[in-house]
Amino acid sequence: MTQTRSSPGHVVVVGAGIVGLATARSLARDGWQVTVIDAGQPGDGASGGNGAQLSYSYVQPLADPGVWGQLPKLLVSRDSPLRLRPQADPAQWSWLLSFMMACRTRVSRDTTQRLLALAARSRQLFESLRQEEGLDCDFAASGKLVLYPDKAGLASARRQVDLQAALGGAEQRLLSANECADIEPALAHYAGRIAGGVFTPSECAVDGGQLCVALHQRLRDQGVAFLLGQRVRGWRQAQGQVHAVQLDSGEVQADAFVLAAGTGSVALARDLGLKLPVYPLKGYSITVPVQAATASATPRVSITDLARKVVFARLGDRLRVAGMAELVGHDRSVDPARIASLTATTRDVFPQLNLSGDLRAWAGLRPATPRGLPLIGRVDKAPANLWLNTGHGALGLTLAMGSADRLRELLRSGASDPASRHRPAPAACSA
To answer: How far apart are CA 195 and CA 122, in angstroms?
Structure first.
């Protein structure tokens, strides 16, 4: 393991999803002694069954001006891919209000610009990770097609493509329906039902769960300590700093602490007197085995069907189908109706696929901020040595490496200048 300087101390990272593991790797390489704590196993949460797309060039935030016109459907339709179910939960109402206020053109543009910059950093760092570590994670640089159902959607896509091009985004091409089928022949049966699409040749796919398992093994071999199956029960604080995290098995002392536990970061921060603007977006997925007889009918290119809010990503001999965004609280149960919807959508778009057998139904909670920007760094009124790396929404897999590197820079700054630990450091991205 490469260390660039003498050890600045011991850091505890709470969370062993892709964001927490990326954070652990970045800090370990910068010389920190690192301990990772998680109540589960690496990749058990949102990292394990997500849409598998590394969407470096297509980062349009959920908080978009178009949401206002869709609001009645979002509130009442049972079939809507984006579903709001208001509950007697002040945190949900506060998040929803902030989310709707962020659905403005100026805010969406600024968010897109920041996310593109963070995604570009992530792309570079993930490529370095792959070259250095050779992790087995079904990576594929297959490109991505975003499909639009009508001319109005395609016109909106053109504006987004122009915006991202002006902001330095990667090459993207607007295509007709027939051109979409030319790039991905498995869409031949579906091309007549779309207006066209946007193709980004540089986009990639990766199995997030496999990536977490492989990265955990590599980090452990390189000296990172892991305390798995250990639930955080509390904190020991004094004089404006956290001195230890308390577990069932005892306490772990450290010089710095990072919350990278996805939606779990909210409760952990609450125990420290902090209110994070993070709320769970529930998503679902199925994983379809690709059989030899139907391999040619299975897409190689990653597909995003915007009308259905469903993504398709080829992972070796499997097809990951993921979608939905529900604001329904912290319920992790798998809704059979949502799985049936994903299965029906897959049959509709790719009718020649064999969907018999175990489809590995999954549901997970993605930690989202109202605006769509992750929380990276310190926040006001927090203990001076507590840092955040959470709130990535559906882009955690995409942004993990860049977020970890940004946090490394902030911790290096704090470690080299002890006085800075007592001054608020702004988050690189905030809600």
So the answer is: 32
